[in-house]
Write a structure and sequence with these properties.
alpha+beta, membrane, transmembrane helix, transmembrane, Secreted protein
Length: 146
């Protein structure tokens, strides 16, 4: 028979291998989704960029949703009841970008970028992940020149 610690070691190794495999599958699925979205945007289609939006009507509160980004459109699609209650910002114009503060990093991914915008409803901030930032900035630039 084996030593009493051998069973424990085998369980730790099996758990580690399963965790690494699950992480690899997650990365594969995310990269596939990002690649499909990039291809759709390159063909000129409208894509939905996952983001968080800070609206003037909901002071100091981030709302989950998506920005529908296309060649001639930038539109907010809320994913929560609180987001559905506020008027959708239109005529977005980029003012600047920044990293999230440490306090904001507790509520959202600290690796995202916050895009500050002027809009029809006032100052709006949009938090997006780095792989989606280019799509949003390009769409904001296109709508600003129109």
């Amino acid at each position: 028979m084996g030593a009493p610690g051998a069973d424990c070691l085998n369980a730790a190794v099996i758990t580690s291998v399963c965790a690494i495999a699950a992480g690899a599958l997650t990365v594969l699925a995310l990269s596939r989704t990002v690649r499909r979205r990039d291809e759709r945007a390159a063909r000129g289609g409208t894509i939905e960029v996952p983001c968080m939006l800070r609206h003037p009507a909901r002071e100091r509160r981030w709302l989950r949703g998506r920005m529908a980004v296309g060649p001639a459109t930038v539109a907010w699609k809320p994913r929560t009841r609180a987001g559905a209650e506020v008027p959708a910002p239109t005529a977005l114009r980029q003012v600047g970008t920044r990293a999230p503060t440490w306090r904001e990093g507790l509520r959202m991914n600290p690796g995202c970028t916050v895009v500050a915008c002027d809009s029809s409803v006032g100052a709006v901030e949009i938090a997006v992940m780095p792989h989606d930032l280019g799509h949003l900035l390009l769409a904001l630039e296109r709508t600003a020149t129109e």
